[in-house]
Amino acid sequence: MKNNLKPKGLAMSMIFEAESANYGEGVGNVASLKKLTRDKGEQYTYISRQAIRYNISEQLGEELATVKAEGSGEKKVIQFSEEATIRDYPEIDFFGYLKTAKNTGGKKRTAKVRLSNAISLETFKGDLDFLTNKGLADRIDENMNIAQSEIHRSYYRYTIVMDLDQIGVDEVYSIELDDEEKIRRVNKLLDTIAFLYRDIRGRREDFKPLFAIGGVYNIKNPIFENVLDVKDNRLVVKQIEGVMFDSIKEDTSCGLIEGKFSNDNEIKEKLNALTMPEFFNGLKSKVKDYYEGK
Where are the membrane-spanning stretches (predicted)? Predict the structure, then answer.
C-alpha cells in the first residue's frame, strides 16, 4: 500500500428487479418472506446482506476458504481454519474472519467490503402462491400436500462499499499482496456484481443492476444508499442530485440499462448515464489508477 496516497473507498449503490428472493421463518404452512415495516404499517421485503454475500462468494470463481468446527457438543462453532489467510482466499480478504481459540482473544479481520440489505422499493401487498405436489400425488393415487408461499416482485436497492487501501493487507498475519493481485481481486468482485444472481426454490433470480451509481472517493461513505428510489416506474433523479456535493461530483458516474424506467431520457440528461459496461469499466480504470499511484 502506498502511504503517500489518500485512503480510498469504492462506493456503489444499485437497483435491480427480482421476485421472492429471501425467505425467513415460516408460519404454519406459509413460507414467509423477510420483511420490515415502515411509517404507517407499509411492509417492504428485503434480501439480507448475508444472502447477497453468500451469492457473491459462491459466484466469485475463487476457492472458498477452509473451515472447521471449534469446541464440543452444542457449543461447537463453525469458523475459518487457522491456515486460511487472505493470501489464498479472496473471500476472507473481502468479508473478514473471526477465529476463536481457547484461552486467547482469537484473531479477527473486519470486513473490507461491506454490503447493505437489498430493500424493496415497492410495498408488499400480501400476495400468496398456492403450492401442491399434485403431479406426484396423482402417480400413486394419494392426497396431495398443500402449502402457500408469499410472493413479491419489486425493484430492490442495495449498496456496496470497498475499503480499497485495506484490501490485500492483513496486519494480523503480516501479509500484504502486490498491487497486481489487489487489482485482479477487485476487478473480479466488480465482474461478479455486474452479473450477480440468486438460486432459490427452483428459480434463478437476476440481481444484475438496472441502474448503478458510484465511484472511487476519498471518503468511505455509502453516499447514495438512502437516495435511490423509484416512483411510478420513474427513478427519482432529484434525490440523487440532492447529495451530489462538489467534492464527489467529479468522481461519480452512473450506469443505466435503458428500457426499464419511464424517464430514461431524464436520467441520461441530468446524470450523464453511461451504459452498464462503460460504468463498470470506468470503475475498474479508477481502481487500477489508485493502486498504481497515478
Answer: none
